[in-house]
Amino acid sequence: MMHWFHALLPREERFFDLFAKHSAVVAAGAKALRGMLEGGDAVDRYCKAVMEREQDADNITREVLIAVRRSFIGGTSGSRMRRMRATTGCAAAADTAGAAG
Fold first, then answer.
1. Distance (Å) of CA 22 to CA 10, 16, 45
2. DSSP designation for 14
3. Could you report how far apart the first and last alpha carbons of the chain are, in Å?
4. DSSP secondary structure code for residue 95 in this structure
5. How far apart are CA 83 and CA 6, in angstroms?
6. Could you give the 3-state DSSP secondary structure of residue 97?
7. Whose CA is closest to 72, among 97, 99, 94, 91?
8. Of 9, 46, 73, 99, which one has the greatest count of Cβ atoms within 10 A?
9. How far is CA 93 from CA 2, 22, 96, in A?
10. Residue range 74-90: average pLDDT?
């Protein structure tokens, strides 16, 4: 009965790991930003750390977007669309999703 739901789930299982990694990088960036805003002799060091964490976060975001594309767009084959159509009865939704790839 829930076959349609499983058909929509990503095949890429790294999403949760990537989101956890991203949140850790954002937290580290926030700490560095706080240190930078406090001023003092360490402003340059904290500024560099903020920039590095931003780059790290951008890299993780890129990984997530590539994984999304691979799982949902590039991985949506014609046979998968036909299976979704058959199990949900939503031919219009499956046709629209298939046209996106």
1. 19, 10, 22
2. T
3. 26
4. H
5. 11
6. helix
7. 97
8. 46
9. 17, 32, 5
10. 60
